[in-house]
Known about the structure:
By secondary structure, the protein is of the alpha/beta class. It is built from ten helices and five strands; from the N terminus they run βαβαβαβαβαααααα. The chain has a five-stranded parallel sheet with strand order 2-1-3-4-5, with helices on both faces.
Amino acid sequence: MSRNAKVYVIDDDPAMRDSLDFLLSAAGFSVRLFESAPDFLSELPHLEFGCVITDIRMPNMDGMELLRQLVPISARPKLPVIVMTGHGDIPLAVEAMKLGALDFLEKPFNDERLIGMIETALLQNEGASKNETIFAEMAERVASLTQRERQVMQGLVTGQSNKMIARQYDISPRTIEVYRANVMTKMQAGNLSELVRFAIRAGVLKD
């Protein structure tokens, strides 16, 4: 992937826009800033291929509605979209990925992680074969889970706490902790955000 790749940042917070502009420009990306989703959509027909970074909570049109607006647009190469979410927005992030977002990032985030995600997003859109390989790998990890571990994973990625999952299946929260640890190990997920992404890529979370 060449440097100077286009990155389109959509966020209503001027400080966040300036911060991302500085960070991504320093990393070699060509950055274009938008303070709202409607502003971005109005310019979309004139934009080159690139990666979209959008906040999920914005006035007038939020990141979810932006994704819905992008779905019918098929006359141009599909733009990979990464959504930024606040703490506790995991269920929203899940819905965003169902609507077509490639990935999501929780605030506050690590700068190098964001840059890596953008590079990955741009590379993954160069061909479908890589995505198929990722899907197969995630499906294998899910297949290694027991039925109870899959139930626990389903609860975790839909935003339920350990106590809520424990009540649902009438087992102790401590037992859920054991299942949770097993799920994270078998899915090779370092945190809950990664587990959500892996579950979606494996096709576990569907409407």
